[in-house]
Amino acid sequence: MILVLLVAPQHVSAQVDLEALQDEAVGWLQEYIRINTINPPGNEIRGAEFFARLFEAEGIEYEIAESAPGRGNIWARLEGGDRPGIVLLHHIDVVPADERYWDNDPLSGELRDGYIYGRGALDTKTSGILHLATFIALHRSDIPLNRDVVFMATADEEAGGFFGAGWLVENRSELFNDIGFLLNEGGGGSVVEGRVQFGVEVTQKVPYWLRLTTTGEPGHGSRPLVSYASLKLIEALERLRLHEFEARIIPAVDSHFRGMAARHPEPWQSRFEDLGSAIQEPEVLEELQIYNPSLHTLTRNTCSITRFEGSNKINVVSPEVWAEIDCRLLPDQDPQLWLREVQDVVGPEVEIEVLMGFTPAVSTTDTQLYEMIRDVTLEELPGASFVPQVQGGFTDSHFFRDLGIVSYGYSATATPAEDAGGVHGNNERVTEENVRRGVTMTVKILERFAATRPISEEE
Fold it and tell me: Where are the alpha helices (DSSP H) in 323-402?
């Protein structure tokens, strides 16, 4: 005789005053934003110490590790049953902000007109506070967990994560031995023309950062040569700019477009329902790049020319010049085949150096966690769309997907379209409503996933 395993949810939200927790979260976020963790140089130890003070007040054990002086990483663990654990991950560092172009101090954490302002409000200090509030709620409830829940805040994501998540994977790999799941940045909600669109990031385009170098005869700027290093590089870059990498719709991208099709006007709704067929018409890709550049980038490998260096003096023809290229590959692309294609395009006189490249991986949506994220999102935001997403940028999730950990990009916030430009831009802000609702949503997801107890189990 086989009895079905019954589980009884132990409702954290019934044990913890969510409204009071939301108040705390708003205050924590303001304080967190005021901590300067701009990278470079990072100084993420300041953020780690902020969390340490909160954990000490709650009686939660934690550990801090510096990968280099000032490059702090912190984690804490709530122990549970033997099911695969989950990590709540975010990065402490933020990108620089030029206060000349902000309406207020980028590190003010000011609450004004229903918004909390400051660098990191969207990327990703709000996510960190939602994770923190949920982690503390689980701890305060004293409800048994069916798995370990780990809070983790890391350094250096904005520069590749090599002093943060990457360093922990390499140097503290034992932390992840029993981990099966991870929640990180990368997905979440947006509000476009009053319609809420939510998604969970399951894979990313793979960054390949290249340096292209050419050499030639040096000389005086007053005597132009027929050919020299700078001209060779310019000609190579122009060939690369004009080159069109093959457009193709991989399965994860197809699911992404089909899931969002109903939220777009015609002719895009019909095109997104079968984009693989639609792009057989060349003008569709051209129009997509104008309509939505972020979606267009999911259809092919791309390269952007971003940095140059040549002569150190205006009247000197340099013997060596280089350019750096930010390329992003579709997740199924063989990097070596692609590099050969790039070499063929730029020509044999150009030396290609790979500065950074990651391993592609896709996280399955066939999990209980994915279903719970979807269910809670749609319960709290009725009428929202919900789809698996492919992200054009990259996050620290790739380090953990390489370990076989199912990693989802998800933040329980719905960002208005007019605020999205604040990510790495000016006047970054998040609505107070998003923070408060995000606390409720994240708590509900984790209580369903981790705060359960078997009633009976018999085989």
Answer: 335-346, 368-380, 397-401
